[in-house]
Each structure stands twice: as C-alpha cells, then as structure tokens.
Amino acid sequence: MENINLFVLLANWLRQWLEGVGASPDVIEVVMDVFGTVGALVFILLNALILVLLERKAAAFFQQRYGPNRWGPKGVFQTIFDSLKLLSKEDIIPKAVDKWVFKIAAYLIFIPAILVFAVIPFGEGMIISDLNIGIFYFVAVASTATLAFLMAGWGSNNKYSLIGGMRSVAQMVSYEIPLVFSLVGVVMLTGSMKMSAIVAAQTKVWFILPQFLAFLVYFIAGHAELNRGPFDMPEGEQEIVAGPYTEYSGMRWALFFLAEYANLVAVCSIATTMFLGGWNPIPGLGFLPIPTYVWFVLKVYFMIMLFMWTRWTFPRVRIDHLMHFGWKVLIPVSLVNILVTGIGIKIYQWMGW
Amino acid sequence: MNIDYSLLTIEMLTAGLALGLLVLSLVVPGDQRKGFGYLTAAGLAIIFAISFAFNGVNKEIIGGMYLIDDFGNFFKQLALVAGVLVALASIPYVEKLESYRGEYYSLLVFATLGMVVMVGAGDLISLYLGLELMTITFFVLTAFKRGDSKSAEAGIKYVLLGAMSSAILLYGLSMLYGVAKTTVISELVSTIQAGQISPALILGLMFLVGGFGFKISAVPFHMWSPDVYEGAPTPVTSYLAVGSKAAAFAAFVRIFMGGMPQIQEIWIALFAGLSALSMIIGNLIAIPQTNIKRMLAFSGVAQAGYILTGMVAGTNAGIKGLAFYLMIYVFATIGAFTVAIGFSNATGSDEIKDMAGLSQRNPLMAAVMLVCLLSMAGIPPLAGFAGKLFLFSAIVAQGKLWLALVGLIMSMVSVYYYLSVAKSMYMGEAADPSPIEIPGSLKLVLIVSMVVTIFLGIYPAPLTGLAEAAASVFALK
Amino acid sequence: MSDAVFTVAFYVFSAVTVLAALGVVLKKNLVHSALLLILAFVGVAGIYVLLQADFIAAVQILVYAGAVAILVAFGVMLTKRGDIRESNLANRQKWPALFVVAGVFAVIYALLGQTNWGPLAAAGPEDSVGILATLMLTDFVVPFETAAILLTVAMLGAIVIAKEVKNSK
After folding, report:
1. With the C-alpha atoms ordered A198, A202, A203, A206, is the resulting torsion angle positive or negative?
2. Residue B420 domain-assigned?
3. Domain of residue B364, residue span
4. Which helix (DSSP H) or strand (DSSP E) does residue B68 occupy?
5. What domain range is A259 assigned to?
C-alpha cells in the first residue's frame, strides 16, 4: 500500500507492539477497536466544537451580522466557554417527567451517532470496521436515532415535547425510505455494500455524476433525517418551544446538541463516501502531496457548508407539506432512479463496455 | 438459471388482475365504479378456463421450489371458481359501500392469489408467504365494513388470533427446518428417516397442525370462526369459509402426504383426534345457534372434521375424497351464504327465525338453501353424499371403522339442525309475507351452486376424475 | 472470535433479550413495555451477529428496532388515554397464564433438549449479502415476489382500515 499515512502507521505500530508483548489475538482486536472508537470519538468531539462555531458564524454571515466575536480572536473560543458553562449548570430534572425515559434518552441519542462512525472510511486504510454490509449498517444504525427523539418527547411529559417527538418520528421514518433508496443506486453500480469497495469504484468517476438524482434525494432526505432546517419542525421554536428538548437543560441538553452535530458529520461523511469519491483526491489533483484523510475532511466540510447554506436560506416548511413531499415526490423519484440505474447497467453490459 | 415462466401463467395472471383492478380503481372516478364486480368475476373466470390447459402438466420449477402439478391445479381451480362466485355474490354488498369499491375486489383477487401460491408451493417459505398473503388480505376484508362495530370486532379478533397461529406455525416450520435442514418439501422425504424421529420433529409437527388447524378451524383451534364469520361481510365470510379452508387443507396434504409419508403413524394419530373432536363438537354446538352465519360457522367446523378423515386415511383414496369433498363444499357453502347475503340485503337480518316462510317469499332462495344444507348433511342424491362416501370408505379401508362411525352418527345429528332451518323456511309463517327480490348476480350464483350440487350428486364422474388425477401426484398406497 | 468471547457475548445478549422481554410483559407502563420491546429486538440482533448473519442482524435493527417497534411506541403514545402508569396491568388470569406458559416452556425445553440437531453448519460464507441477493432473484423468486405483493396488500389494507370514515350526509 503506497501513500501510507500517519494514522495507519500508528495503528500498525500499535498492533505490532501488542503482538510483540504477546497479547492474544482477541485482546489485540479489542484494543484496536477501543483505539479506533476513541479516535472516532475525538474526531466527533473536535468536529462538534468546530461546527457549533462554524454554524453560528455561517448563520451570522447569512443574516448579515457578526456572530460570536468576544472570546479569543474572532470569537473562536466561544464554544469552549459555552460548554464549560453548560457543564457547570445544575442538572434539572422536572418533577413530572418519566425519570428513566427522560434520563436515558439523552444518552441514547448519542449511541447511534457514534456507532455509525465504525464504517466510515476516513482515509485509505482508515476504517474501524470494513463490514461487508457497510452502508447497510449505517442505514440500520441511523434508523434507531428516531427512538431517542421519541423517548425525549414522551419522557418530558410536556405537550410541546410530545408533539415535537411525534413530528420527528413521522418525519424520520418517512424520509428514511428515500434516503435508503437513493443509496441503492450507488450499491447497484458498485455491486457491493462494502465501504472500501464503494470508494475504490470511484477512482475515475465520482458517483455524483451518474447518480445526480440520487444525490439530490439523499441531500434533501438528509436534512429531514437530521431534523435541520428547512425541515426542523420537531423543534420549531415559534410553535412548540424547542420540541423534545424543551425540558432539558445543562449537560443533557448539550448531549443532544453534540449528537446533532455528530449526525451531521456522519451524514456528510456518507454523502462524501457514496457520491463524492470518498477519500479519493479530486481527479487530476492526485499528484499533490495531500494525505487521503485531508481530502476526505475537505469534502465533508464542503458538504457541511452546503447543509448550513440550505438551513439558513430556506424557511421552515409545514409538516403536511413535508410528508406530502416525502411520500409523493421523493420516494417515486428515488424509485425511478433505481429503475433507470438498472436499465443503464443492463445497457452498459449489453454494449460490452 | 433458466426458469420456465410460462408455467407460472396462472399466478402471474391473477397477480396482474389484482394489480390491474387496484390501478383501475384509482383511475376511474368514484361515482362511475359500477362494473368492477362483473369485471373481477370475468377475469377470474378466464383464468379459471386457462387453468384447464395445465391439467396433466406435472413439472417442478427451480428444483422443487414451486410445483405445477394436478394437485396444485385442482386447488387453484377451486380457489378461482370460488373467487368467481364470491365476486358475483359481493356485488349487492359492494354497491352499498361508500368508498373503496375497487379496492374490495382487488383484495378479493389478492386473497385468491394467496391461495394459488399456497397450493402450488413446493417449499415451506413460499407456502408460508402464500398463506400470509391470503390471511392478511382476509384481515382487511373482515374489517371492511367501516364504522360497523361487529366487523371491527371480527377484524381485531381475527388479526390477534391469526397472528398467534402464524407464529405457532412458523415456530413449527423452523423446527422442521432444524431437523430436516431443508425447506423444500420433496426433500423432506429423504432427510426425515422413519426410524429415527427426533423429539423436536414431533414438537414441530404439533405446532404445524396447530397453525394450520387454525386456518381450517378444526377443534380445538376453532374459537375464532363463529365471531369472525358473524362479524365479517357475508361474501367475505363465504370466501373465508371455503378458500382459506381448502388452501390450508392443500398445505396439509402437501407437507404431510408429500413430505412425510414415512412417519405416517405419528401424524395420523394427531389428525384422527382432531377429526373426531371437530365432528362431535362442531355439530353439537351448531344445534343451539340462532344466527345463520354462526350456525354455518360451526357446521364448517364439523365439515373440517369430515374432511380431515381424508388425512387420517393417509392414502391416495383419502386425498381423492378430501379434494372431491372440498370442491363440492365450495358450492354448498357459497350457495348457503349467498342466500344469507340476499336475505340480509333485503331484510337486514341474519337470524334463522326471521327466515320463516322464506319458501313463499322467494322460492329459489329457499330451494337453494335446502339443497346446500342437505348436501352438507350428506343426504343422497346430493353431492355431499358422494363426498362423504369417498372419505368414509377411504378410512374404513384403512381399518379405522370407529372414526367412520363417529362421522356417520354426527352426520345424522347435523341433519337435525340443517332440517330445522328447512322447517322454518318451508313450514314457518312469515311475519312479513312480502316477496324478496334479489339482484341478478346473486340469482346466478344461487342457480350455479344448486345445479352443480345436484349434478355432481347424480353424476360425480367428471369431478372424481379430476380429484383422482390430483391424488395421483402423491405416491402413496 | 474465540470461544470464550463468543460464550460471554452470547450470554450477555441472551440475558438482555430475555430480561427485556420479561419487562415487556411485567411493566405496568405500556410505553415502557414498548421501549423494552425495542431492547429485546436489539438483543436478538446481537445474537444474529454472533451467528455471522450480519445482514440479518442489520435487517433486524432496521426493520424491527428502527421502524416496527418505534411505530408501536408511537401508536401507544398517540392512542392511550387515562393514566399511563397503570396501562399494562395483569388481570385475574395472571396465575393460570403463568402456569400454562411454564408448562409449554417445560415441554418445549425437554423436547428440544433431547433432540440431536446433527452436525452444525459450516461457518457462514464471507459475502453473505451477495449470495442472499442472488438467491432471492433465482431460487427464491416466487416467495420474493409474493412478499412484494404481500407488502402491497398490507399497505392497501392499512389505508382502507385506518382512513377516517367520511360523514357524507
């Protein structure tokens, strides 16, 4: 493997050291997994820190104001101080809540957000677990994120929270379908659900070109999955205070926030892997001495900027319009995409290319 | 792999008809949906006619995964002809519906498709999926009378108990798979050895019998049938009574006679017990019933007992009797239920006492009811007599005289409650002697059921030929 | 994976599944029952992973934990009226039910325990997804298409039953 990068070297070194100490294969696997998970966790936390600031700056830019600018140069330390404030707040659990459900929901929302990073190829050879069912694993794990919203909404024992939770379930379950269908086209082209195979198939042409429709569907459905504007009805503050988050405060509230940004990174990472060539360099720029993981992060941040752009540009839609759009537009479109892709593959084979 | 899809013509046409009706009901504006019933009946009749081209074709698809043979074809024809009659009988009911008229017929054809797949299935997975297609469609059809609490009650009861029975059936199938390591029925013969029967296999068989016993409503799995039969729309009830039962019997024959004839002595004992219980309890509880649909439900339980004797025989003669009886049961049951449809359509009542004096109010309905009930009781020269003769002689030939005796005695018991309906219709005084008018489609169904029931009683040879061909698929004694 | 890890993992997942399932039955709050049902599904998915059925495990999570159970919880939350804390109570049939269940369990346990299940299947294929996909469209094409129609019917039925009755007066 040429182009071996820093992180892979580090992992190999660790593995060799463990073998040298005489650890059993089981132990080595567990230790490697722990390190991989910790690496992903650090990545998530670091990104969350950056993204909170980035989002506020982006929002400020779109709304023609300054945004945070007091702490540190241009306000870069704002998030750090914010987190310190949240950490030091009293942990308030309202009297009427369903205590177990209320408490667990805040932790539960974080689990799928971390788990999906197990299959994301950050760079060449940099994937915690290159499963056979890679992308399907992402879909399956991401689908359980709905549960935390439902639990938070219900457990808060507050009508606004409940409505918010219900909205988020309706929206996420509905938009999961076009999201998955949009990924099917890529899997059909690759013939594999393995992340490494999908990235390897895009060395020449990124799948955004043959699967542009799927990319659009994914992009739109992604907003709904993330509960981000213009599809942020679950927390629409003009109507239902803050939806499922209404009763949460302090650290628990911060966890929700963190998970939201972790999910944003995950969804953008998947978009990068599936449609933007993963860690492959931009065609023609492969000669530059840029490590693969930098390419990957650059593309992910490009996607994140797109998501922020739409969030701060479009007004919130109404829930029934949202459902109508999901079921009557996105799903048929994504089905048509699958059909056309299938026909295209057959023609391709028939022509013998 | 090349699959000869032309062998699946019937399945594909049925699916096409169902989906076509679904699309059509979306396209045609609500107030113009008139001819759907006739369209459905015509479509199913055409498929029924085509199915005769497959008589004598005995082929396997995909290594025994799906079977095109005379046995399957016989039951496909049964499902299709029952579908035609039920579609016609549904017309007055559907006209009263406010919405979903096209969907009703579409679901009816989907149920037919479920039966067709189920009786043609050569492996357990196809069989189970066919069964579920049929059952889930019936869940919906049972609760189709929207805003009617009895229909809703019947629907929820059927869903809960049906799901339970499906779970038991699946558990049984999984054990069968665990023991045999295959889901293809024809391979069961070689993988299950007669000498070494494992305990799990016995457990699996018990669960299988329980699961399918629910569908054929054999005692002690019959509790659901009176309530569901009563609450469901009557055309649906008639299809549920004949189609669901026939398809489950076909599955019984396929799995037990086709897959496990080598361990006959185990399952024959099970079936003998079920059969005797069903005949006794079904007939005895039918006596005090006052609602015609509930009475027919318990009579259906008893009929399941009679038909099960064909399984108890465990021979080709038994299968022949079973197939023959099921076919004539279709006509007798649909005839009787159609009278109930016409009657409740005109008067709004399902009670037997309200049928008093029906012979003056509508002689045709009374006559059909009489013929159908007497056929079910097994009075010569009606078709039911021939059917019972085949079944009972098959078990007597196997030395199970006691079961035949139970059947005979219980048939006599059944004459009592069948005739009490007849007595009420012919001897009773009608409270309101005004004549009852019934629509033409119902008349057609009534006449067909009556003519077939009488004709096959006098001259059963055409049907016995088909039933014999169906039975000859299985290499038994 | 070594035997020791396998055994530990198996018992952990089994315990999670069984305890969660018991919770579904015994919890007095219907919403808690529905949520524990999801946990039970996840436990079953874990056992699938141990059996090297990774695709089935993902399907289990996606379909059961991610959609079915969540809709169950959703339905419970939408329809339940009155005091939710006392919504899933046992009735007088509790003890007879326990008796019957224990009996059935004893019979099944005894019979299955005595069974010689024969040699275990060889380790699962490396690329189970590809094989499954091929099988579904060749050997199992009839059940596959039947399942497709079944789902259509289920959707149609749900719409027919659930859509509100119009008052056309």
Report:
1. negative
2. yes
3. 260-477
4. strand B66-68
5. 86-350
pLDDT above 70: residue A66: yes
SS3 state at B376 = helix
Residue C82 confidence (pLDDT) = 64
CB B365 within 8 A of CB B299: no
How many structural domains compose chain A?
Answer: 1
Q: Is residue A225 part of a domain?
A: yes
Q: Report the C-alpha gap between A351 and A345 in whole angstroms.
A: 10
Task: Report the 10 Å Cβ neighbour count for B59.
Answer: 11
DSSP class of B7: G
A77 inside domain: no
- Please check whether residue A305 is in contact with residue A203, taking contact to mean a CB–CB distance below 8 angstroms: no
Chain C neighbors of B236, CB-CB under 8 A: none
Percent above pLDDT 70 for chain C:
85
Instruction: Give the B:C interface size as CB pairs under 8 Å.
Output: 99
Partner residues linked to B68 by β-bridges: B59
Cα–Cα distance for residue pair C94/B154, rounded to 1 Å? 25
SS3 content of chain C, % helix, strand, coil (to 5): 75, 0, 25
> Which of A116, A119, A136 has the highest number of chain C CBs within 10 A, making it the mutation to test binding with C?
A136
Question: What's the Cα-to-Cα distance from B417 to each of A223, B228, B376, rounded to whole Å?
Answer: 67, 21, 11
C103 Cβ neighbours under 8 A, 6+ residues apart: none
Strand partners, B313: none
Contact present, B40 and B87 (Cβ < 8 Å): yes
Preceding amide of A230 cis, omega within 30? yes
A118 near A137, Cβ under 8 Å? yes
Strand partners, C99: none
State the ipTM, two decimals: 0.88
**Beta-carbon separation of A140 and C130 below 8 A:** no
Angle in degrees, 0-180, between the axes of helices A292-313 and A250-275, rounded to the nearest 10: 110
Spans in chain B with pLDDT lower than 70: 1-2, 30-33, 194-195, 477
Does residue A44 form part of some domain?
no
The CA distances from residue B45 to A304, B38, B83, B327, in Å, are 60, 10, 9, 16
Cβ proximity of B232 and B142 under 8 Å: yes
C65 to chain A nearest CA, in Å? 7
Residues 6+ apart with CB under 8 A from A259: A109, A110, A113, A145, A148
Contact between A292 and A301 under an 8 Å Cβ cutoff? The reply is no
Number of domains comprising chain B? 1
